[in-house]
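Late entry, evening session. Most of the bench is empty. Finally got around to the prediction I had been postponing all week. Sequence below, unchanged from the version circulated by S.P.
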Amino acid sequence: MHNLWFQTFNPKLGSGAELPQSRLKLYAFHFAGASCQYFQPWANKLPSWIELVGVQLPGRWNRIQEPAFLRMEQLTPVLGEVFIKELQESAGNPYAFYGHSLGGLVAYDLIRFLTIKALQLPVHIFISSKRAVNLPYTGLTIYHLPDAEFEKTITYLYGGLPPEIASEPDMKKLFLDITKKDMELLDTYTFNAEPLINVPMTVLGGTDDHVVTIKELQPWQELSSATVELQQFPGGHFFLRDPESEPKVIDIIVKNLEQYKTI
């Protein structure tokens, strides 16, 4: 049976070209309101020894008929059990996580689950545009706002809706509904100090992000007993969309994972 949680994005190959049989898997966790298809273009930008796998949460894209999770304490055990099967099928091959905003939280909490279960951990985690989870939450929750006010708020915070969605009433309604549920998942997260993870971490942020500042990224250094590096790039909360920043992000991913090549 096809597993809807994980979607492999293979690069376009030239005639006669073949992918390596054994590749390091990079699991990409999408941000609120999005789907893992956002990362699909990376498949042609990463080297062939990295296999890009999108992690698709319920309630969107090909899982639109499934109810979205509203609490991390409900999502993580379900995703964790599914991921255990992934680990069994990968036969101990190294893997890594990349999560943007909400995706960073989902990836981090999954590592905590795997740590408690004493299972194979990723060789690296990349977290971008996500406020450190050990900071007291002082912001306002917005997921309960009426659509018009919610749209106005996320436009102010994150730059607004994509034009192709904003111009279509049905698509806009669907997008706002998905984003509200994802924001509830994000805003209701409760941090527990244990367990401390032991995974090298790279924390990424935009220099012009007024939602998550550099000071709010720095405390991630307290959440892993392994090395934690902080990098900033031109752009705001979605600096990944910046044509100058994206190649630099991919370069950092490759440099940190190169030592774990399986070919």
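Two things to note before I forget:
The first helix runs from residue 72 to 90.
The chain has one domain: 6-135+190-260.
Will write this up properly tomorrow.
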